[in-house]
Design goal:
globular, 154 residues, 6-stranded antiparallel barrel, two-stranded antiparallel sheet, alpha+beta
Length: 154
Amino acid sequence: MGTANILSDFKTDVFIEGRVVTGRKIGRELGFPTANIDSNVSRLSNGVYGALVILDVRRYLGVMNVGVKPTVDSNLQKTCEIHLLDFQGDIYGENLRCHILFKIREERKFDSLELLTNQIKGDILYAEKRFNFIGYTSVREQVLFNGKPIFKSS
């Protein structure tokens, strides 16, 4: 199981790190494939977050859910899953490091999968605007400088 460095102040580096494992593939069925991360997230508040994801030397932006997925009846087991924006591929078994940049909303139960799908679409739109506002545009496959990502506008 991966590690989680969870701090209460997002001005510090808050990240979740772990291996991508097989999930129930519900996100994929809804049109939002997610990477399920094997990591201890017990100290992070349930919710939906915007994150910078490091996969090998590549960088992606993503929308991450931490919690019990109450709409899909996950037996209240707390998990972490992330939908990578503008990404297609198979990353099962890969290690991801997800740096949390901001919280989008609290986790909540929806009355139907259709309502959940609509909310996810809204979460992604909000996250894209927020990423852009704080200067994260086209962060794919950027180079590290002293261990920190360097971002350039495209």
